UniProtKB/TrEMBL annotation:
Pfam families: Beta_helix (PF13229). Residues 156-305 form the Right handed beta helix domain. InterPro entries: Beta_helix, PbH1, Pectin_lyas_fold, Pectin_lyase_fold/virulence. This is Right-handed parallel beta-helix repeat-containing protein. PROSITE patterns: PROKAR_LIPOPROTEIN.
Amino acid sequence: MNWRNGALAVAASAVLVATGCESAPGERAEPTSAPSGSGARAAVARVCAEPADGPTKAPAGAVTVDPAVINDLAAKTKSSPANTTFWLRPGKHRLEPERHAQVIPKKGNRYLGAPGAVLDGRKKNQYAFGGDAPDVTIRHLTVQRFVAPHDQGVVNHDSADGWVIEHAKIQYNSGAGMMAGARQEVRGNCLRENGQYGMNAYKGTGPLRDLVVEGNEITGNNTGDWERRREGCGCTGGIKFWAVEGADIRGNWVHDNRGTGLWADTNNNDFRIEDNVLEANDGAALIYETSYNAVIRKNTIRKNNWVEGRKGASGGDNFPFATVYLSESGGEPRVRARTDKIEVYRNLFENNWSGITLWENADRFCNSPANTSSGDCTLLEKEPDRCAQPKIATAPLYTDCRWKTKRVDIHTNRFVLNKSVLKCTERCDRMAVLANYGTYPKWSPYKGERVADAITHKQGNRWHDNVYVGPWKFVAHDPSRVLDFGQWQGAPYEQDENSTLRVRDGD
């Protein structure tokens, strides 16, 4: 979720040359190739404008689906055996005009769209593809104008496992364009202008394992502006991940979403977020919240958080609203993953509203009324009722009942800030590690400055070997401690060893 203190549960070498992107707020970002040596991917996933074409003829053995026959796709799916391939002719395919009408695939079915094949919900049907059949494939098909309810999805509505969705356009739907199941592969798709999420990666029956999201364009989602309609709901994003165990998020273009670009919320673990272009999202490019063990590398992160950052600053809030926000998340060796820390390296940050904030809410832990992930506990202690007075004040529960921002290693990144590009005068220039003063509930063992002291000095959070260009400031311990570069590098903080700060390139 988003707001702290009970209200906010959320809120390499260096790149040699800064890249440019001249779009203003409200304009669509046009991607530019990353410079040589940046670590960021040069090719951008422009799949909405340049989709890969599907087969122009039915593959051998495929069942042909006729757009002139209403409900032909659902009917032929029902009458055909498992492992059938369906080829959808060019044109607009329709289901019965009843809200629960949908396609219910069988195991191993494959749905291939010819160039121009569209499955259109006509704002009448809620779901396009549902059911629990595993190993379904959907390729080269446009799925649009379905009206899934809040928190539900249009494609793979029931989060079945092993689906492959490739080279599809999933656009102009309510709710989420798609849901995710275990072992799902989402490649080369256009997830555009859906009402809530481009994809909602959530499986209510347990951890969602081994998710691949690669080479997609994820843009303009949250057209319903749900954070305004339900303030602090934490229910939006280009993609939202919940309790995902193992995810590779690579080579995507995530841009111009209303709110956050990528948001991992509550007990996610073992993420690799690499070679993406994250730009011009209204909120943070990336939030990693109450989660564990991730590698964030070789991304180009540009012109994010202008809307939400400016809104917070204009309201007088001195919290360092960040473009990459690590909230109660850290490396944990006891949780099995490909890494035992959160490592952020070889990324280019250019003209975002602030940089990276490491945050820990002193009042947020298992069984606390301030924990907005209500009912959830950490991956180290899965029984919230054990996290109560008096045992919580003793080992191991004192440690295991908290999500902690710890073992975060931020290095060999390039942070570029030109305030004239942002049209910003203050509070857009922050790098931060901090917590609030613990006050709640009465039986909390984390009151006072204990958590602020720990996240700042005792939990292995470290910046080093970075390059800063522009008027950067640094916040440590709590929002009131705003430091210059020398203070940030000096005692007692001793951050950014071997890093450099200069006003502009060439200085």
